Amino acid sequence: MSILTEMGQKAKEAAVVLAVLPTPKKNEGLCAAAEALLAAEKEILAANQEDVAAALASGIKGAFIDRLTLTQARLEEMAEGLRQVAALDDPVGEVLSMKTMDNGLMIGQKRVPMGVIGIIFEARPNVTADAFGLCLKAGSAVILRGGKEAFRTNQAVVLVFRQAMEKLGLPADIVQVVPDTSRESANEMMRLNGYLDVLIPRGGAGLIQSVVQNSTVPVIETGVGNCHIFVDETADLEKAVAIVMNAKTQRPGVCNACESLLVHEKIAEKFLPMVGGALQSKSVEIRGDEATCALISAAVSATEEDWATEYADYIISTRVVQNLDEAISHIRKYATGHSEAILTENYTNAQRFLNEVDAAAVYVNASTRFTDGAQFGFGAEIGISTQKLHARGPMGLKELTTTKYIIYGNGQIRQ
Amino acid sequence: MSILTEMGQKAKEAAVVLAVLPTPKKNEGLCAAAEALLAAEKEILAANQEDVAAALASGIKGAFIDRLTLTQARLEEMAEGLRQVAALDDPVGEVLSMKTMDNGLMIGQKRVPMGVIGIIFEARPNVTADAFGLCLKAGSAVILRGGKEAFRTNQAVVLVFRQAMEKLGLPADIVQVVPDTSRESANEMMRLNGYLDVLIPRGGAGLIQSVVQNSTVPVIETGVGNCHIFVDETADLEKAVAIVMNAKTQRPGVCNACESLLVHEKIAEKFLPMVGGALQSKSVEIRGDEATCALISAAVSATEEDWATEYADYIISTRVVQNLDEAISHIRKYATGHSEAILTENYTNAQRFLNEVDAAAVYVNASTRFTDGAQFGFGAEIGISTQKLHARGPMGLKELTTTKYIIYGNGQIRQ
Predict the structure, then answer these.
(1) Do A358 and A332 contact (CB within 8 A), yes or no?
(2) Shortest Cα distance, chain B CAs vs residue A214, angstroms
(3) Side-chain-side CA neighbours of residue B26 (13 Å)
(4) Which residues pair with A342 in a beta bridge?
(5) Residue B63 — pLDDT band, cuts 50, 70, 90?
(6) Which residue of A44, A150, A329, B334 is surrounded by the most CB atoms within 10 Å?
(7) Touching check for B370 and chain A: CB below 8 Å?
(8) From which residue to which does any coiled coil extend (chains A, B) (predicted)?
């Protein structure tokens, strides 16, 4: 038995206990884990400092180091996140529907835990706490496999959670971390059929593609967002500038940021210089088609590749289109199905865009930056699904559950 | 561009039309397809006779030939199935929820078509019509890849459907059949990411495993059922015999048939001879543990392998257990998560079984044979999901759809 199948076995046993755990006990576990996290500040920050030092020594720098680094304030955020999950409604046990058939069978559909959830993620220690908290509340055991640069930190955090569970008489194996960050362990995890009910990758496009390509357990694909804003002929141009600026620059590194701007030709002459000036004031590079470059002198020529690129940076591709149809065609060709927006005062065009654009979230007159579990009122999210199976868009507690049919009979046999 | 990517491209184009097709037009398409099927009886039966003759010549026989063979009556059933799907409610367009957030954004979740659905199945021509009908009503284009023995039949049936679509001004590519039944074409279909939104295998365990192991597009695993009935100490034994007989013998070849019987030790002495006699009268082979063999002289010894086997035949494995806990442990170890039943008059045991057994359908005092789309009131089904992602249990029209978030704003930007 390999380490991973052994972990899978232990997770399955913990899941049996978790599946019938009353809500107050799960909430107690979450609050105890939050407290334990703060109490272990010294050990966790020490482990994290080792990780950061090793990463710096290997030449890593910039935003990566920032995401890897824990501070007292970040530990407090992680603890607060766990407490917030405790305050959310428990999704488990809800009977979504129940009806009595002609033969007297009462058939109901009940929300139940997944069982065992696997999460593969990069070197962001906060994901460790988020994933543990959401899975626990949703009644599932979790196996975490974080990026190698955060290895010591993840071990330290998970150890604290496990000890907190045991103190409450709960199985420590509610949460496990893979003690091996080799590519082989990731690949084995992707093929842990019979143990993992679902595998969720959280991270960049490379990680997600690797999981999609190699996994035989069911996967929920998350995150890649080449998001568009189409500024229609009738858009309120002041609002349009504010929305484009928000969607592009409020936090350019995230998946719901705007990457590509489509502008109706009838307003291009007026709108492009307006938005161009605003973008330049925030040092956003504009890669435009010919019409854009003619109207914004600072714009550079976009290549075919630009239309398909999620920059996650202070860059935006920009194109002038003839009408709504051309905008929808462009989106159909290049978008990743994440978040798409139309800015318009035309009722019919708004409804057409909502109906005809195929994405997890489709907006009229708002920034794409709202595609987020907290903004949607879910309290917390495990990621944003860009696939169509099981969950689409921000995934909260409900999306981490499944259902089963429960049937009450009194001797029925099939004719 | 390979044949399959070309088919994928055409399906995507057809899906764009289908996604916004009004319900009456879809129903018109279904009824026209039903009529066309009957009108083409001569051509379809001729193609089918060639398939059957080739199968017989290659040494195939028995139930396989029966499933492969079309008759006028079976064509009528297929046409009637299409008309029944036309009569079902259209799942597309339902807004499952919509709420107004504090910032004034109205966020709704709307049921929308999947897009393109792939179905890989064995030599059962009726699946061709079922799958086409359900996918059309659910607003998705479908790519079918049937077993090679039914190749000519499937081509003939799909040609009829395509012509019927064109006559109504709809895209013929709503339905396509892969013109190649090689293993390579199946493998390529399993990796048609970017074109297929979901792939559903329909058939035996070998086919399903091959799809699960090789597919990079999202899969819904269907069908394998090692279903148990646990006869508790307080069961009504007359009803229990009737239920076991129904679940085992009413149609032994299907996935919701009972394969394994667990009997509480306190009633084994009375119940096993009762049920043993009934099973023997229908020539069911009983493979039992020691206690069973001591009470049913005709029973043979079960091996470890028996407990894990879906016989799909007139065979049942039988074991005496000490109590509910042992029954649940046995089911947890050997079941495939399809359909499980407890027969009991004990309220607490009934509720515990419903809560603690992890399966798509869990029954109290009824036959496992009811796990079926029609029996659950869905009208028709595309298969029975035994995985936890997206759909679990019988899959009707709703399970062939996905959702998207639609957001109405008036200039909101994220703080």
Answers:
(1) yes
(2) 7
(3) 29
(4) A230, A364
(5) confident
(6) A150
(7) yes
(8) none
Please report how the helices A41-57 and A23-39 are oriented relative to each other, as an axis angle in degrees rounded to 10: 70
Q: Which of A220, A247, A409 sits opposite B365 (nearest CB)?
A: A409
* Domains in chain B, CATH or no CATH each: 3-221+387-408 (3.40.605.10), 227-370 (3.40.309.10)
Q: Are B414 and A19 inside 8 Å of each other by CB?
A: no
Q: How many CB atoms lie within 10 A of CB A304?
A: 7
Q: With beta carbons less than 8 A apart as the criterion, state whether A156 and A179 touch.
A: no
| Euclidean distance between CA atoms B1 and B10, whole angstroms | 12
* Nearest alpha carbon to residue B181 among B142, B144, B159, B148: B148
* Residue in B215, B155, B199, B222 with CA at minimum distance from that of residue B371: B222
Whole-angstrom Cα distance, residue B23 to residue B361?
31
Q: For A374, phi and psi rounded to 5 degrees?
A: -65, -40
**CA gap B279, B288 in Å, rounded:** 13
Q: How far apart are CA B24 and CA A280, in angstroms?
A: 51
**What sign has the CA pseudo-torsion A247, A254, A378, B95?**
positive
**pLDDT at residue B204, as a whole number:** 83
Structure tokens at A367: 């920034």
* Residue A365 and residue A243 in contact, taking contact as beta carbons nearer than 8 Å: yes
Strands A227-231 and A339-343: parallel
Size of interface A-B (CB pairs under 8 A): 192
Gyration radius (Cα) of chain A, Å:
24
Report, as an integer, the average pLDDT of A224-240.
Answer: 97
Sequence-separated (6 or more) residues with CB below 8 Å from residue B35: B79, B164
Residue B214 tokens, joined: 């090789």
